[in-house]
């Protein structure tokens, strides 16, 4: 319980700061490395060479800078984070400071689940389809079985959700993945693939995606364990098909590359290129001098780490219930 109070306290403080017109990031995403043991068609990251990775001391410096800038939620990803032997040490430090989550492709999860789970509040495991589709999209046979085995083990220790990237390969199978999540007793978060110049372009035609988004929204309303809010689907549908723009607030999330550099202005624009090191940057100053207004009408991606905080409103009761009260209740129950 003791850790909850500082997290909520920081969030409220940040909210108040925002009300005074100050911009502060409250979610951080950090790629621990680009190297990966899978070869997803739509992914540019496994194709990049890693330079020297951050030491544990540098990871701590990065976390301290982010905490001082107002960050309350930290999400680790890659590449494949479980390829790092010091992952437990990094997660332990993060869990002392932040609500902590991790995304893995699940290949190496079964044997590490118990040792990493104690430092996690939420674990996301990528599953993009049933066996054949998943293995095709992920580029390595056997990846579906490994992910499934990993989920079965990890859910004994921590709250787990499937993370699904919707592409031309799997768009007609997405509802089956939602059924799978329900059968496994885990959540599922979806987002539409974004076309990077250095990967294969698999993002589906918007027209073809319409029925899929409507089906997902209906499943959400019917109580399937979809982590995205109902408003997430409403917003995508309004923006992509009816031209009603949502105001992106990319400053709500700060992304950090494997060398500890801030990715500006967001995860996808500039193809995830890092700039200055986190611990050498006055983040609050940068956040409040940078011209974010040009990105407000961007609407290019559907990444939930940007879209969800951008559309969150204290006036939308269902969002407050699900995002604040629900997550606090989940958090407390996970501590009991
Ligand atoms: S598992 Fe993740 S990092 Fe690895 S290739 Fe696939 S999308 Fe990229
Ligand atoms: S909508 Fe545009 S500015 Fe906002 S996160 Fe996506 S790509 Fe970046």
What does this structure look like?
By secondary structure, the chain is an alpha/beta fold. It has a single domain (30-335), classed as Aldolase class I (TIM Barrel). Helices cover 43% and strands 13% of the residues. It has helices spanning 4-19, 56-68, 87-97, 109-117, 131-138, 143-154, 174-184, 206-221, 230-242, 283-289, 304-311, 317-335, and strands spanning 27-31, 73-77, 99-104, 122-126, 160-166, 187-192, 253-256, 261-263, 274-277. The chain has a nine-stranded mixed beta sheet with strand order 6-5-4-3-2-1-7-8-9, with helices on both faces. Strand 7 (253-256) and strand 8 form a beta hairpin. The longest helix has 19 residues, at 317-335. The radius of gyration is 19 Å and the shape is globular. Mean pLDDT is 90; it is low at 1-6 and 331-336. The protein binds iron/sulfur cluster (2 copies). The site of one iron/sulfur cluster has 13 residues, from loops. This is Molybdopterin cofactor biosynthetic protein. It holds the Pfam family DUF3463. Residues 22-234 form the Radical SAM core domain.
